[in-house]
Write a structure and sequence with these properties.
This protein is of the alpha+beta class. It has 6 helices and 14 strands. About 40% of the residues are buried. It binds biotin.
């Protein structure tokens, strides 16, 4: 596989061990001069969405990209789609033929199982975000146990037989991210939304979106211009900003 090279304008820090690459990104953010990837060979206290823990068996991938977007939080948060697409790009290049898809808001699935998760964290004062940390975890070697009712975790090794080293994925992901970010900067969310929808899992099918306040069941119609999940329910169309999505069939 050809080395994609490291993208211009992005720095990289490689750590042997860290609690969480996201936590490290938030600690370092103020001191970083520009976009920086923080990669760890071993992450011992990984964080998942909604306060869950993320476990990283040896050989899995853990890295975070620290950005200073100086944008309103809603615009900055669309980078979860930029990152998910970039990860899909990188994995498709490394493992051609792998059955990859994207699950709203930002999981990457392999043959319907959860291969990767993305966690955005940030800080800001006033109307714009000072720092955005995009944390990406990929089950390259091993799938940790999953939560009950959620999409079952899978690993790339178990699902495809492919052996991808975390450092190799970092180079491809950084390259793919830079390309998608350039499009986002120049043309906005529109083209990325189209690309995301073209790779979406369960589009047009019934899904359940669970929030702290309850659940909404409906047909997954689209993702809107703000990145919200749009469900067609019995009571009409509903746009959801944040939720956990469950599939009835197959999970
Ligand atoms: O719950 C999810 O699906 C998101 C998981 C995100 C895990 C990654 S691993 C690298 C980065 N550092 C963390 O502590 N979390 C993210």
């Amino acid at each position: 596989m050809k080395d994609p090279g490291w993208p211009e304008g992005y720095a990289r820090r490689v750590l042997d061990e860290v609690d969480s690459t996201n936590a490290e990104g938030l600690r370092l953010a103020k001191s970083l001069a520009g976009p920086t990837w923080i990669f760890a060979h071993r992450q011992v206290a990984g964080r998942g969405r909604r306060g869950r823990a993320w476990t990283d068996p040896a050989g899995n991938f853990a890295a975070s990209l620290v950005l200073k977007p100086a944008e309103p939080p809603g615009q900055a948060a669309l980078r979860s789609f930029v990152a998910a697409l970039a990860l899909h790009d990188a994995l498709s290049t490394l493992v051609p033929g792998a059955e990859l898809s994207l699950k709203w808001p930002n999981d990457v699935l392999l043959s319907g199982g959860k291969l990767a998760g993305i966690l955005l964290e940030g800080s800001g004062s006033g109307r714009v975000m000072d720092h955005l940390v995009i944390g990406i975890g990929v089950n390259l070697a091993e799938a940790p146990p999953g939560a009950e009712g959620a999409v079952p975790p899978v690993s790339l090794r178990q699902g495809t037989g492919a052996e991808v080293a975390p450092e190799t994925l970092l180079a491809h992901l950084a390259h793919a991210y830079a390309a998608r970010e350039t499009v986002f900067g120049a043309r906005g969310f529109g083209p990325l939304r189209e690309a995301w929808l073209a790779r979406a899992a369960r589009l047009g099918e019934e899904v359940i979106a669970r929030t702290m306040r309850g659940e909404t069941r409906g047909l997954f119609e689209t993702v809107d211009a703000e990145g919200k999940l749009v469900l067609k329910t019995e009571g009409g169309r509903v746009a959801i900003a944040a939720a956990d999505v469950f599939f009835e069939r197959g999970t």
